[in-house]
């Protein structure tokens, strides 16, 4: 499937607003790759597909996760996380994507995880700060993103975790581990 057909197929599975978000993530990820390096085509592929399952019915997400059978524990956590896991599986099953780095960048784009790859960092941060995002600290995080990928992600994780606490929601352990891991790495740097 060529790039245009892939984009059309993904776009058909979401609202125009959600696709507009994906286009924003594409442009932000491209900027981050220019600044920090990485393979632009690999990043673009991960971004096009990152939210492919976002607007699937919850049961379809759960079915995909069960069918893949490798990350069943996510079903015990917040449903917000499911689309990332279902999306990674859909990228492989429905679009023949085999690059494990692309699949992981899709799978961990919401939670993050300790030891994120460069590609995972680019996709995670681009998803958070694309031009359509408007949460209180987004401009601070955008500024940090011009100085350090890791510092920006750390600030983004802090914001995400604080938001979840304020809402009285559970925190996915990988998100906390991602933050701890980045703090350690920043201290070593
Ligand atoms: Fe997402
Ligand atoms: Fe997204």
CATH superfamily of the domain at 3-134: Hypothetical protein af1432
User: Which ligands are bound?
Assistant: fe (ii) ion
Query: How much helix is in the residues?
Result: 55-70%
Beta-strand fraction estimate: under 5%
The CA-CA distance between the termini, in Å, is 41 Å
H/I helix tally? 10
State mean pLDDT (0 to 100 scale): 97
Present the secondary structure layout.
Layout: H1 3-11, H2 16-36, H3 40-50, H4 58-68, H5 82-95, H6 100-107, H7 118-129, H8 138-145, H9 149-166, H10 173-188
Helix pairs in contact: 2-3, 2-7, 3-6, 3-7, 4-5, 5-6, 6-7, 7-9, 8-9, 9-10
Bound molecules: fe (ii) ion (2 copies).
Could you explain how this protein is built, in words?
By secondary structure, the protein is an all-alpha fold. The protein has a domain at 3-134: Hypothetical protein af1432, CATH 1.10.3210.10. Helices cover 68% and strands 0% of the residues. The chain contains ten helices and no strands. Helix 2 (16-36) packs across helix 7, helix 6 (100-107) runs parallel beside helix 7 and helix 9 packs antiparallel against helix 10. The radius of gyration is 16 Å and the shape is globular. It binds fe (ii) ion (2 copies).
Highlighted features:
single chain, Hypothetical protein af1432, 10 helices, binds fe (ii) ion, mainly alpha, 68% helix
Brief description of this entry?
With 189 residues, the chain is mostly helical. Helices cover 68% and strands 0% of the residues. The chain has a domain at 3-134: Hypothetical protein af1432.
């Amino acid at each position: 499937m060529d790039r245009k057909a892939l984009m059309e197929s993904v776009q058909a599975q979401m609202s125009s607003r959600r696709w507009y978000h994906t286009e924003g993530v594409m442009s932000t990820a491209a900027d981050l790759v220019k600044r920090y390096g990485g393979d632009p085509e690999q990043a673009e592929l991960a971004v096009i597909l990152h939210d492919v399952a976002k607007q699937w019915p919850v049961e379809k997400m759960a079915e995909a996760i069960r069918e893949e059978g490798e990350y069943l524990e996510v079903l015990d956590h917040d449903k917000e996380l499911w689309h990332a896991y279902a999306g990674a599986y859909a990228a492989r099953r429905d679009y023949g994507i085999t690059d494990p780095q692309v699949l992981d960048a899709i799978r961990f784009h919401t939670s993050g995880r300790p030891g994120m790859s460069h590609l995972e960092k680019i996709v995670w941060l681009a998803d958070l700060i694309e031009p359509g995002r408007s949460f209180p600290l987004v401009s601070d995080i955008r500024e940090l993103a011009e100085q350090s990928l890791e510092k920006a992600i750390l600030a983004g994780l802090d914001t995400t975790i604080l938001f979840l606490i304020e809402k009285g929601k559970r925190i996915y352990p990988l998100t906390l581990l991602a933050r701890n891991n980045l703090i350690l790495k920043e201290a070593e740097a």
